[in-house]
Write a structure and sequence with these properties.
Order of helices and strands: EHHEHEHEHEEHEHEHEHHEEHEHHE
Number of helices: 13
Helix content: 25-40%
CATH class of the largest domain: Alpha Beta
Number of domains: 2
Oligomer: single chain
Structural class: alpha/beta
Strand order of the largest sheet: 1-13-12-11-10-9-7-8
Radius of gyration: 20 Å
């Protein structure tokens, strides 16, 4: 596997500056260290003998991919002295086809010290379920102010704060990457989870008109629906696919790899790690780092700072990666302009 970093002049696509992937673990540690300098020392913040309780509402499936990302949240708490099975307990609830409102209501009955709500649907469910229990959101799809989750970015003004991407125009970047990768691209399938809202899909339609691409949105609301969605997509004879953000699709990332290979469909997924699993290309926020950011916000709340005083944050790191073995199997030659932008190139 080759790792590349840096930008070259003359490349059309406007990406965040790349950082070599081997320093990412240290970056996560830096996120934790910087965040935790703003809160009291763990020994001062914790009450003797207390077991802190955190609810977690995740709309996707419980699997190794979720657990690996969730470790970022767990590690942030552990760095501050909040350690599972010692003075910390998690109550996790998973959707993946189940209604989230009853799960959110169930979490409130446990009287948690705070709830981590993931994705737009999870945040909406917790926002409706409680106005008193602190909520830390981790949401790639919503504008937190326009959605009514917070009053302002610097001062949320209620019981909710968190990490929001709020950059639907990224869907246009995904189409640009795919078009640069596949010069003959004309018809693009878009895998979309309606529970995440339409902001990214709307942005994709706007970008497609400029790029002169025909879009064919295909819905999937659970991991079980991903396979049928691919079969439906192929009826439109697409020459590529982009996958919009959703915990359902992150949970089902490896299934997406297998289906894209089966149908020989070049597919871009926004979740780092897709290329390591055998996918063609990924470009999006480092999800584990976002969980670490959410963890530092949780530490501030457990240390006594109310959510109303904790500014909303945005993702700090994006990763762009290609798998050249997959490109070769698909008969594609990735342009050097893209490879020079990539954080990772797997050969």
């Amino acid at each position: 596997m080759r790792r590349r970093a840096g930008a070259r002049r003359g490349v059309r696509l406007d990406f965040p500056p790349a950082i070599p992937s081997e320093v990412r673990v240290r970056l996560i540690g830096l996120v934790l260290a910087l965040g935790l300098t703003l809160v009291p020392l763990a020994g001062e913040a914790q009450q003797a003998g207390k077991v802190w309780r955190i609810g977690v509402l995740y709309p996707g499936a419980d699997n190794s991919l979720f657990r690996a990302n969730f470790d970022g949240f767990r590690q942030a708490l552990g760095t501050a002295g909040y350690v599972e099975r010692r003075n910390l307990a998690f109550d996790l609830r998973f959707g993946d086809g189940r209604a989230l409102a009853p799960l959110a209501a169930e979490l409130t009955t446990f009287r948690p010290d705070l709830v981590l709500a993931i994705a737009r649907s999870g945040v909406m469910a917790m926002h409706a379920a409680t106005s008193t229990i602190p909520v830390v959101a981790l949401d790639l799809e919503s504008d937190p102010v326009a959605s009514g989750f917070v009053k302002t970015i610097p001062r949320p003004g209620g019981n909710l704060t968190g990490v929001f991407m709020d950059f639907p125009e990224l869907a246009g970047k995904w189409l640009e990457i795919l078009q640069t990768t596949i010069p003959a691209l004309a018809r693009v399938a878009v895998l979309w989870d309606p529970a995440t809202g339409s902001a990214q899909l709307d942005a994709a339609h706007r970008a497609a008109r400029i790029l002169k691409l025909a879009l064919y949105p295909i819905e999937a609301r659970t991991t079980a629906e991903i396979g049928p969605a691919f079969r439906e997509a192929m009826r439109n004879r697409p020459s590529g696919m982009i996958v919009l953000t959703s915990p359902i699709f992150n949970s089902g990332r490896r299934e997406i790899v297998a289906l894209a290979a089966r149908y020989r469909l070049p597919t871009l997924v926004p979740f780092p790690g897709y290329e390591k699993d055998g996918g063609l290309v990924s470009y999006g926020p480092e999800v584990m780092t976002m969980y670490a950011q959410a963890g530092t916000l949780a530490v501030k709340i457990l240390s006594g700072t109310p959510p109303t005083e904790i500014p909303v944050e945005r993702p700090t790191r994006f990763t762009f990666a290609f798998n050249l073995k997959t490109a070769k199997a698909l008969g594609l030659t990735i342009p050097q302009t893209l490879l020079l932008r990539a954080d990772q190139v797997i050969e």
